Amino acid sequence: MRTVVLTMKASVIEMFLVLLVTGVHSNKETSKKIKRPKFTVPQINCDVKAGKIINPEFIVKCPAGCQDPKFHVYGTDVYASYSSVCGAAVHSGVLDNSGGKILVRKVAGLSGYKGSYSNGVQSLSLPRWRESFIVLESKPKKGVTYPSALTYSSSKSPAAQAGETTKAYQRPPIPATTAQPVTLMQLLAVTVAVATPTILPRPSPSAASTTSIRRPEPVGHRSQEMDLWSTTTYTSSQNRPGADPGRVPKEELSTQSLEPVSLGDPNCKIDLSFLIDGSTSIGKRRFRIQKQLLAGVAQALDIGPAGPLMGVVQYGDNPATHFNLKTHMNSRDLKTAIEKITQRGGLSNVGRAISFVTKNFFSKANGNRSSAPNVVVVMVDGWPTDKVEEASRLARESGINIFFITIEGAAENEKQYVVEPNFANKAVCRTNGFYSFHVQSWFGLHKTLQPLVKRVCDTDRLACSKTCLNSADIGFVIDGSSSVGTGNFRTVLQFVTNLTKEFEISDTDTRVGAVQYTYEQRLEFGFDQYSSKPDILNAIKRVGYWSGGTSTGAAINFALEQLFKKSKPNKRKLMILITDGRSYDDVRIPAMAAHLKGVITYAIGVAWAAQEELEVIATHPARDHSFFVDEFDNLYQYVPRIIQNICTEFNSQPRN
């Protein structure tokens, strides 16, 4: 009997060794066969809506032509999921009409979406929607695997019909089981009373699934299996644009329940750059206090794509960007990144840093949004080691709102070392105290947190957001008399076009209107008729030559009544008059009326125009506002000079 038992034990051990070797070999074979599939970017059509796609974050390729208005977009910066994905990408500026790759990230729904015109796409407003998305450049996060095939809420999605890479929305199949290693204890627990060969239990499917290799999913998102997503039903007709009451598209009935993501405070939508002092003289302790202020600001601002965005540049000898506006899209990630910033050392070259930010930081590639004011907060320990006035002037003229926080200024015996006395007042947007903070001690820096946040978010007072190119109502008064001729008239219209191209055109930025005159006057289009640059340029192109006499005085009066009477109170009023001859009527009284009404008049004369009449029409000093051109073909040469004079005059306004 003892011999039999020993023989059976030996057989069991032998069986275990065979199975162990078999399992190892099987696992090796399996690991050889499993290769990470090569990532291919799925292609979608222009009409595919974000709500159709179940994936919470994905990269796709859009075709050309998605600027077409038939591909509806709802919202600005953050879009309702009922929007065309590719249409939203064009509207946001991530793509142009030629198409390309984009990264799409789903976020929570909003209580309202505001429409706007941007990059040739007119987005629409929407009261509310249950899910949103943002569009970013297609730069994958490190360690994140994006789907090569999109998951759709319906197998009959438009994308699938178009033939791009898709897969139906269904429960993923249970992974195939593989041979599992069996322990010696499991084998010895098997009953040996039966002399027949023992069959080991096969691993259950659930056990197999825990050991099978799973493809990594994007960080921060849940699994995409159906039972992890909630279903929501909507009955309000407001939930879908153009929908019948109580009717909701089938593809919108079931969606992901996303993790709560802050979209930021919409009442403080600014693009903010902190310029922090990393000079050697500041020391490690004070550098750490500076970072604590930044972290506090990041928390107080509620960072997000629909609200404020923030980047950090450190300066010493030379400036360097730690992260730009689109690197971190919430306060938590931003605070973590701030904590990791280390001091660079060197001098305190603030002027060089401001120039760097003006030229490099506020670009579309770095996440700058045309709809948000640009703000720079400069922190200075003591005083700069270079001059800041000229660099700051250029920044202000670029529309950047500069705030200064100076800590522990120069003592009486140190003032001889200050390169530029009163540097903060020479740098900020206004010298009324709103843009500058002086802190006596680093230990009192925390007291500036709340007032600083309040001021940078007060967008109505961010005066430097208005520049010479985005804050005017420009009325062109064009001579259409017989002496001009058809060919020269087209040259004049090209001159008007070239000037218009230099300005930022929208309903809230610069607006353009035009009057043509002979003996009579005609309003070609008013300030409120067109709100985009392409529409304005097309309207100029369509102006037809009239022919007749030359009554310039009457034309000025007509422009004051029909154009500038409807100008907005906060706009600079600019009249640009082009004529080729002497007026048949008096211009003095109409010109004086224009000046009294605050209209800045530029008079451009061609060929037979009277120089003294141009000087009467033009705003004082005439040398800056009147120009004479000997031939129509030379008009284009004066475009840069006129723009320069307009901007010089704008920037010479008092800053108090």
TrEMBL record:
Upper classification of the organism: Eukaryota, Metazoa, Chordata, Craniata, Vertebrata
InterPro entries recorded: ECM_Assembly_Org, LCCL, LCCL_sf, VWF_A, vWFA_dom_sf
Protein task: Promotes matrix assembly and cell adhesiveness. Plays a role in spinal cord formation by regulating the proliferation and differentiation of neural stem cells.
Region annotation (Disordered) ranges: 150-174, 199-261
Signal peptide: 1-26
GO BP annotation list: extracellular matrix organization; nervous system development; positive regulation of cell-substrate adhesion
Residues in VWFA domain copies: 271-456, 473-646
Name of the gene this protein is made from: VIT
Compartments, record wording: Secreted, Extracellular space, Extracellular matrix
Primary residence: secreted
Quaternary context: Binds dermatan sulfate and chondroitin sulfate.
UniProt biased composition (Polar residues): 150-168, 229-240
UniProt name for this protein: Vitrin
Keywords from the UniProt entry: Disulfide bond, Extracellular matrix, Glycoprotein, Neurogenesis, Repeat, Secreted, Signal
GO cellular component: interstitial matrix
Organism encoding this protein: Macaca fascicularis
Domain LCCL, residue spans: 40-133
Residue spans of biased composition, Basic and acidic residues class: 214-225
Highest taxon, organism lineage: Eukaryota
